[in-house]
Design a protein that fits this description.
By secondary structure, the chain is mainly α. The chain has a single domain, classed as Orthogonal Bundle (Hypothetical protein af1432). It is built from twelve helices and no strands. The chain is globular and about 40 Å long. It starts with a helix and ends in a 15-residue tail after the last helix.
Length: 225
């Protein structure tokens, strides 16, 4: 049985930093509740992978924070594009694909650690070089970035999004296995397929996220995180 309190505390501990006000404001900027909870889940999946492969507590914590803020660049994109029900035009899609760079610039303004900034900039880079915005491949992509790319892909596959319906966890794992050494770092794919902790979190993700309500913007909240 998964320990819900443990996971809630793990997620919450990422906000209890000296920079908690910065992180709080960035989470507020994710105007969509769907995207907010997506970031919470991605941060948790990413930290589980980081822990599985033996990263230090500090690096695992930074990976989790990277996941929490990986989509902050969307806060600089017009709602008209993000909420569009029909297919995006080529120009609109090009603009959306710029969100990792926007996120990098936002985090740089907030003086986030360099490893977190780099991870956010690279979280759509594919292991085979087919990703964006830079077309990096293999170990040109930071380990944080490779972890985020896999964690986000799994969460997007297994949850309804504004663009597609969720698939089963078995179908998602099969797709990820098929894309090992193509889109995804094969060592991280092995970790994801082998991690019972990740599967346990997936099974309880909705209950855990309900325990971690989306913040609302009240000035006094800045001093109570």
């Amino acid at each position: 049985m998964i320990n819900l309190t443990l996971y809630s505390n793990k997620i919450g501990s990422s906000l209890k930093l000296k920079s908690s006000e910065k992180l709080f404001n960035l989470l507020i900027s994710l105007r969509s509740p769907w995207r907010y909870y997506h970031c919470v889940r991605v941060g948790t999946y990413a930290s589980i992978l980081a822990n599985y492969i033996g990263m230090s507590k500090k690096h695992t914590r930074h990976v989790r924070i990277s996941g929490l803020v990986h989509d902050v660049g969307f806060s600089a994109i017009n709602d008209r594009i993000l909420d569009k029900q029909s297919s995006l035009t080529a120009e609109e899609f090009t603009y959306v694909k710029f969100h990792p760079v926007l996120g990098m610039r936002i985090l740089d303004c907030y003086d986030f650690p360099e490893d977190i900034i780099k991870a956010v900039a690279q979280h759509h880079e594919s292991f085979d070089g087919s990703g964006y915005p830079m077309g990096l491949k293999g170990e040109q992509i930071s380990l944080y970035g490779r972890i985020l790319f896999l964690a986000e892909a799994f969460d997007t596959m297994t949850n309804d999004t504004p663009y597609r319906r969720a698939c089963t966890v078995d179908a998602a794992m099969k797709s990820i296995k098929d894309l090992s050494d193509k889109s995804f770092d094969p060592e991280l794919v092995h970790a994801m397929l082998d991690s019972e902790e990740l599967t346990n979190f997936y099974m309880q993700r909705d209950r855990i996220c309900r325990n971690y309500a989306r913040p609302v913007l009240h000035a006094e909240d800045l001093f109570t995180l």
